[in-house]
Specification:
It is built from six helices and eleven strands. By secondary structure, it is α/β, with parallel strands linked by helices.
């Protein structure tokens, strides 16, 4: 199999629309089973793979996702470019609800997750360079694709990855703002680091579902509003990916 691109779908993106010649692949890895079957199909004449990060029925909490199995399964199916689609909260003023962003940095606040392929019996420890956690070429291509699709996407920003599944307190977000975070989500790590260990080009397409706690002048966070915002932002993903696959 030769995949031109793989997408890991986050909350709200459990199936990728418009695929032709669809096949489902149940893949096993040395690190266990991924979140579900990997769906492959053709879009703009290019072969892509899709995996729902939380499972197609959203049964896996962020800290229960088998990130190692997910990334390894896509790698074993020949994926060498992966777009991670992540639902996030907005901290920075230009990253409010329904905005799309392509961050260039990340801070990891998670704990207790299996975050390296080296963490296995008999495997040699590798220290990968993670100075720039996302692949610059893929980020640039993703932003260019958004422009071609006529969709606004914020270039750059720092993603703060928290443990979840609960949302953050006002004080936690205030600390993250001081740390330099512009977005907050629960699934950005260890996905990006695992891709780097395997030499996969990886970029994040962040979909802002809500203002983070204490941001945007809102006193509280409404779950119905979160899902409405996320649905609107998710509708922009397929046109961007189609434009990305249409690149020469």
């Amino acid at each position: 199999m030769n995949l031109d691109l793989a997408i890991i779908g986050g909350t709200g993106l459990y199936r990728f629309p418009g695929l032709k010649n669809v096949e489902r692949h149940v893949v096993s890895t040395p690190f266990g089973a991924p979140s579900g079957a990997i769906v492959t199909g053709e879009l703009n004449g290019r072969r892509i793979g899709f995996l729902a990060r939380h499972g197609e029925d959203h049964l896996l909490a962020p800290h229960r996702v088998n990130y190692r199995a997910n990334v390894r399964a896509l790698y074993d199916l020949s994926a060498r470019r992966i777009i991670g689609v992540n639902a996030v909260g907005g901290i920075r003023v230009d990253m409010g609800p329904r905005a799309l962003a392509v961050p260039d940095q990340i801070i990891d606040y998670t704990h207790g997750r299996f975050d390296s392929f080296c963490d296995a019996e008999g495997v040699k420890v590798e220290h990968v360079d993670f100075t720039e956690p996302y692949s610059a070429d893929l980020r640039i291509a993703l932003l260019a694709a958004a422009r071609r699709a006529g969709i606004a996407a914020v270039a750059g920003g720092c993603y703060g990855a928290t443990q979840g599944p609960r949302l953050e307190t006002r004080a936690e977000i205030a600390r993250m703002r001081r740390d330099g975070c512009d977005l907050v989500g629960m699934t950005g790590m260890p996905e990006a680091a695992l891709a780097r260990e395997l030499g996969i080009d990886f970029a994040c397409l962040a979909l802002v579902a809500n203002w983070a706690a204490g941001c945007g002048g809102e006193a509280s966070i409404s779950l119905p509003e979160i899902f409405a915002n996320l649905e609107a932002a998710t509708a922009q993903v397929a046109p961007i990916i189609a434009a990305l696959l249409g690149e020469k």
